[in-house]
Amino acid sequence: MFEFIRTHQRLMQILLAIIIVPSFAFVGIGSYKSFGDDANTIAKIDGKPLTQQEFDNAVRTQLDSYRQRLGAQFDQKMFDTPEFKQNILDQLVAERAVAAEVNHAHLSVSDAQLQKVIKEQFGGEGAFDMERYKTILAAQGMTPTMFDQRMRRDMTLQQLGNAIQSTGFAPRAVAKALSDIGAQEREVQELLLPVADFVPQVKITDDMVKAYYDKNSKFFEVPEQAKIEYVVFNSDAVMNQVTVTDADVAAYYAANQPAFATPETRRAAHIQIALKKGASAAEVAAAKAKADAIVAELRKNPGDFAKVAKAKSDDPVSGEQGGDLGIVSKGSLPAASVEAAVMKLKQGEISDPVQSDFGFHILTVTELKPAVVKPLDAVKTEVAEALKKQKAAKKYSEMAEAFTNTVYEQSDSLKPVADKLGLKIETAANVSRTPSPMAGQAPYNNAKFLAALFSNESISSKRNTEAVETAPSTLVAGRIVEFKPATKRPLAEVDAAIRQRVTMEEAAKLAAKAGAEKLAAFKKSGDATGFGAAKLVSRSKPEGVNGLAMQEIMKADTTKLPAYVGVDVPGMGYGVYRIGKVQQPAVQDEARRKSEAEQINSIVAQQEMYDYIELLKQKAKVKILKPIAKTTVVEVK
């Protein structure tokens, strides 16, 4: 099972992304039903086409995600590979196969389940705020209706995934056997032959030194280095040249008064008397009578609204919260009649029963805050900053074009562009062709910029590089002032270091030879002469034994004891290890065993899911019509 997971890591990542963790990366079920079929189709799943445009959108989404994570180090060329594109295609195909099964099985999520999850995600510990909810969705380019559709889709997929994974479990005997292997203890004695003991036997000749020098010449190279000048153009440079006057601020404030107004907010609660669709006149009358009775009760004791809602409301979600509907705004409630009634109530007033498609509602406003317009003085700084950013955004494109053109047209110096745009010429020494960890986030320490800086033309002519985008809204141009090509340190300069290195290598060979001879002798005799004191070791408690040695000790065949293993330990010498006992710990770590059993069951469940996805792909008759090599990774600007 562990080997399955190790060899199918990419597939498991796809499954986790699609089934276990809800994702909004790709299209929803609604889009799945409406695919077109044209010459751009690259695959068919359940008879429905996957188009080149949909593939490009998925690639763009992934690239945007990597760009945000990698920042200045992002280079799209790293992702322009068949493997990257194949991974995207696999994700899309797997998702469409699962979505097809969801459609065929008519799986769905109830309104109550959906509302509960949305309130949990966006309400937190407090009450649900519809305006905050809309604002968050708008920032992602979605409306509540779009988000509802995607949430239904993801919740349905999650239910399907959970149902399949719940069928996977490992027998207790298997879990116990694997835990026993992990906890196993072995009694070990060590005989170490230190490499230092063999140094006196080594004789190093000049020919050996020369041979090592020639064979490992790359170790003695001094990389090329350059002293450079560079200028950085970014949004900060633009902001420094933008000013905003008090008159500008006042004019903007006057023209955008609604933006500085806090609208009236009404927090409402309701008690619902439910009616099924198509209820008879008698049932409607009975529900109305029940609602009238509750209204009469509440008007005598308005403060009991929350208590009555918990006891008598047929809305399971709001009822548990004392009938709370959160902040009510235009379009926030599914029933227009209920929303209209809420807008007419005073705080604490109890409404007459209001009928909707869901039944009758008794309403009250629990909190009412009137609209307020912030004065100019309170928002002056905010407005000035917004205006400055607005002006800078307009000016950025113009200045960026001037920056790009000037460094190219006057390529023998950075001074013209620095003077023209008010930029500072920076310098850096010992700059190499690849980014240096020591330089950190320095503007020039970017792979794309360094590639331009160390181009043949830039080195030979010492002309300006082109303007290179090293981060969003950040352009860098530079030139080499002094260049030192790569050189090789002379043999005389490194002779002593080579002799020391070769001596240790030859001594290690002698130690390994002597150790191998001792190992063979011990295996014949079973002798323990020369070994150190016995100690009990395990995978989690090596007790000072070298890591490489521990690997060999725990892998050793112990069907016949004592068992012996020999290990070449780099930098130390050669170790011979005698294994005298194999046993389980006297006291088992039950918490660890329980955790391991859960991990094993998880692996089995994931394998069940993998098999199920493969079955769904067969059921959906997946056909790849356009080889992945012919798809094109879109450029992200």
Automatic annotation (TrEMBL):
How does the UniProt record describe the way this protein sits in the membrane? Single-pass type II membrane protein
Compartments where found: Cell inner membrane
Among its keywords, does the record have Amino-acid biosynthesis? Answer: no
Q: Write out the entry's keywords from A to Z.
A: Cell inner membrane, Cell membrane, Chaperone, Isomerase, Membrane, Rotamase, Transmembrane, Transmembrane helix
* PpiC domain ranges (all copies): 263-367
Q: Does the keyword Cell inner membrane apply?
A: yes
MF terms (GO), sorted A to Z:
peptidyl-prolyl cis-trans isomerase activity
Q: Which PANTHER family match?
A: PEPTIDYL-PROLYL CIS-TRANS ISOMERASE D, PERIPLASMIC CHAPERONE PPID
- Its recorded name reads Periplasmic chaperone PpiD
Instruction: Record the organism.
Output: Duganella vulcania
